[in-house]
Amino acid sequence: MKNFCLKLFDLIIWPFGVLLSGRFSDYVRSIKWSIYVSFAKHRFKKSSNLKSFGVPFVVVGGKYIELGDNVILGKDCRLEATDAWRGQTFNPKMIIGDNVVINPLCHIGCINEVRIGNYVTIGERTYITDHFHGASSYEALSMPPRHRPLFSKGKTVIEECATLGENCAVMSGVTIGAHSVIGANSVVTKDIPPYSIAAGIPAKVIKTIEPE
Prior knowledge:
The protein is an alpha/beta fold. It contains three helices and 24 strands. The relative contact order is 0.09.
């Protein structure tokens, strides 16, 4: 009789245990993310099997942004393709390849062209841009920042299989070569060759990986 009562008690409290378990919370969270992504993917010019590990994320000018297959967007990341600013007009193009991971709180801004290759991983709080708020001139710097014309030095490219650590900044007109690693907290202002390890402000190559 005692065993029967214990089993009955377990049966009664089982639903409450499921509701309060971490597994159930994870399940509910994954459903919420899936619903959000199913709507958000239509905001892009192209996307295929978009995924996320945190919502929401911000998309501006999605009609200029192309996502490859299995792109993962982290919570609160911002993808912004700007076609107009204070009387200026642009024709932006942002192309993100297959299997790219963009971690939370990243910001990618584009008025010209930003290309990110396949299998690139971008650490949290990283900033990638192809433009500045104003050129480095006395006239531009004399204006309030929000009033300065947007200025691009050219397209920004991150080639396939590159890895960017957390808190990096990749500036306008820069190309990061394939399979390179950029250390955390680095500011990339010049091209980085393929198979390089670079770090610092500004980022410098500290090691080149050669075939064994």
